[in-house]
Amino acid sequence: MKETNIKDVNYFHKVVDCQYACPAHTPVPEYIRMIHAGRYDDAYMINWESNVFPGVLGRTCDRPCEPACRRGRVESEPVAICRLKRVAADNKNNIKDRLPAIPKEKNGKKIALIGGGPASLTVARDLMPLGYTVELYDDQYKAGGFMRSQIPSFRLPETVLDEEVNYILDMGVTTHLKEKVTSLKSIMDKDYDAIFIGTGAPRARDLPKLEGRQEADTNVHLGIDWLANVAFDHTESIGKKVLVLGGGNTAMDCCRTARRIGGKDVKIVVRSPKADMKASSWEIEDAEHEGIPMLENHTPKAFVCENGKLVGMLFELVKAEYAENGRRTLVPTGEPDVLLECDDVLMALGQMNAFPWIERDLGIEFNDWDMPEVDKSTFQTSIKKLFVGGDAAWGPENVITAVAHGHQAAISIHKYCNSQDTSDRPAPGTTLISQKMGFHDWLYNAPVSDDLRFVVDHVDTDLALSDRKIEVEKGFTIEQALRETQRCLNCDVQTVFEKDLCIECDACEDICPTDCITFIDNAEEDLLRKNLKMPATNLDQDLMVSAELKTKRVMVKDENVCLHCGLCAERCPTGAWDMRKFLLNEAKAGKV
Amino acid sequence: MSYIKSNFRHPQAKVNELGLTKKDYEGSLSTLCAGCGHDSITAAIVQAFFEMNIEPHKVVKTSGIGCSSKTPTYYLSKAHGFNTVHGRMPSVTTGANMANRNMQYIGVSGDGDTASIGMGQFAHVVRRNLNMIYIVMNNGCYGLTKGQDSATADIGSAGKKGVPNQFSAIDLCQLSLQLGAGYVARSFSGDKNQLVPLIQGAIEHKGFAFIDVISPCVTFNNTPTSTKGYEYVRDHLDATGTIDFVPHRQELKILHPEGTSKEVTLHDGSKLLLKKNSHDYDLSSKREAMNVIETVAEEKKILTGLIYLNEDDHDTHVRINSVDESLNALPQDQVCPGSIVMDDLNESFR
Questions:
Q1: ipTM above 0.95, yes or no
Q2: Which residues make Cβ contacts (< 8 Å) with residue A112, sequence separation at least 6?
Q3: Residues A254 and A302 in one domain
Q4: Interface probe with B: pick from A506, A516, A549, A572, most Cβ of B within 10 Å
Q5: Under an 8 A CB cutoff, do B2 and A534 touch?
Q6: Contact A551 B234 (CB under 8 A)
Q7: What is the domain-level CATH number for residue A277?
Q8: A504 and B4: CB-CB below 8 Å?
Q9: Residues whose CB is less than 8 angstroms from the CB of residue A460 and which lie 6 or more positions away in sequence, other chains included
Q10: Is the pTM of this model over 0.95?
Q11: What is the pLDDT of residues B240-288, one digit of tens each?
């Protein structure tokens, strides 16, 4: 193998698994260390710069970082990154003086944001400090988008959301609330220099052709619309017996909300095996904890009505069969159909995009799925001043992805407004700094804690079910949080190898607890992976290969389960190994 | 301000036939200087015992005084151990071995502990062919007292102080050969591929197994002018042949083309496969072994690998006709048969 080029920022970025997996590339280990140091404001601001909604995300993020976390490969559970983020948000002081200054003198450019969700708000956050005039349109009476309408208050208290939305609106964003945009042309005809569409994926899937659907309509609700109605106090109750169709996170929110506003016998019913449900494991657990059974392999067959009123649903029993290519088919078992009694049905079967308000003759290219064609890196459409991000761009994702889109769109808008090439993307800012303080002394806590993942305490279930606005999770105590931070392996503190200093004493190879390091004759990658002290079987993780050493061997380090404990550097007599902190901050709109 | 070895190991870490992982063969974290050759030897001992499926509590580890003699703390923490007086490891090991012959004995010592203060004890434990592994961690200097030349430092070799050594070096392999060791080897701490099979062969050998391991002292004797620094040793290695150890239960997997390797069968049926090289000589011939050591030394090179092997000599227990059982397993009336037996014995000498 060729010598690894550690100057390529992607190499070390990939080693920081959590940050690499995060769509917004939040420097996770950096803020976790801040939390341990009790520097909650600093931890919060690192998050705020990167993901804009730390308090919201610390409760509701889809956490792509956690399955990626190296700790999960070393022992069983990843670091509770998401809940540590909440610790920073909950324990911070007033950070308003740290928010960017907004120029009194505007730069004369005017931007319209359609939709008041996380993508649009992120664009506003990035453009307001640059002197833009930003106008935001939303059909609800408060900004926040799906963060407000879809995420129930028992998971995300309104105060937390309001605080973080207002940090942005208070920068001086002009809001046009309760103003549904029904024509893009009408916006384009105004004097905006650029327009950003962040309208989400607002249309719920229905079962329009299922027998009895029309007759049962009064008691059949579309999950996301129903959740919005509850959030905005339009719906205050539901029948005693409720069936929730679907196995995603919206289904979990629907059933738990139903339990709080009158539902006594609430069931989740899914077509597939339970193991195939799309909801996050922790959301399934929380729903089960509230006494919600989940019936698997039930395919809806008919809504059953009596005297024009819904009384139940009929389901066909199926089983999953998997073809050789892994493709699943649901085959009827032949058992008699099952009738489940119910007063109401909530359908949480997925979401789609819908752009009925965009005139098709404006010159915007639409693709085969009737979605506007959006450039993957610039978020620009075929009309140069029109940008799309968040769920509106390519379908439903999550808050953190919408934020990442918002940052990128803001860069494009800023470049576009300054007549620059939007396809020329700015590089992230990186630093690589030695953490050596002295003998056995590093700038980070190198020892690895043996603690297993801490579990966040919940409020008493009876109390939680009595009021939909009581937050279920209490958040980590400071004690729990401090110990949880020590589970972080500090993967951003990189093992940097200086080949010319190495005397090949093998001390690093001998001491490494997880046998990551091997001095070996060079070979092609496949062979090298097999021949290492511990075979490097995780192909997602890179090998760091040195240039040839004096003995003609090379140093090969498998990044897979490196604990970043620094023992290689501790035991190195010549300082050939050093622990250096790699900090990567994504570029943001600003430098042009 | 401290450093701790994590309890986590590679999640796919191998398990040996006893269901143990390598971690079960480790000891505390070394407090020797970073880069010390002794730590590599420690790692080789850990690997050898792990791969040989030896229960750690069936091992007795002994040592004298010195940097080398600290190492038993760093391996086989579940084994029995005795850090003895300086240079007195052989007699303590002899005593232990006499009391219980059914344990695996491994003594480690340094060039000072063996070739200076312990020379007398060393000579006699070799003579008696005590069933033990004797490893000398040989760095050519007194590392624990700031790097003075030891008795194994080569003439002209200069450590950190920069003053060349004026006295003849003791070659411990030659000495062991002359004194009657049945298994004589030399290796280098930086060559585990060679050292691990040599230790494994020594474990299987019945009788005195001696391994002189050149182990650079990074702090005091890793200078360009030293003959025991990493670079010098690597540049001057001359192996008797690469070695593979094949446990008796395992089939021969490593096949060398016919005529290029030699098979040596050990007592329990294990084999040592030696790949032939320019020093193709009869390993069981003391004279030829002596000759090769001298020839290579004249070329200013360091002979490593298995130098001599004699499986036929009897160990101490056989020679003195002692009981098979360990003393702690013998019934009281046999350990101490009483005054009548004593009287009879005395009577027989009159």
A1: no
A2: A135, A136, A137, A187, A190, A192, A194, A195, A196
A3: yes
A4: A506
A5: no
A6: yes
A7: 3.50.50.60
A8: no
A9: none
A10: no
A11: 777 777 776 655 444 445 556 677 777 777 777 777 667 788 889 999 9
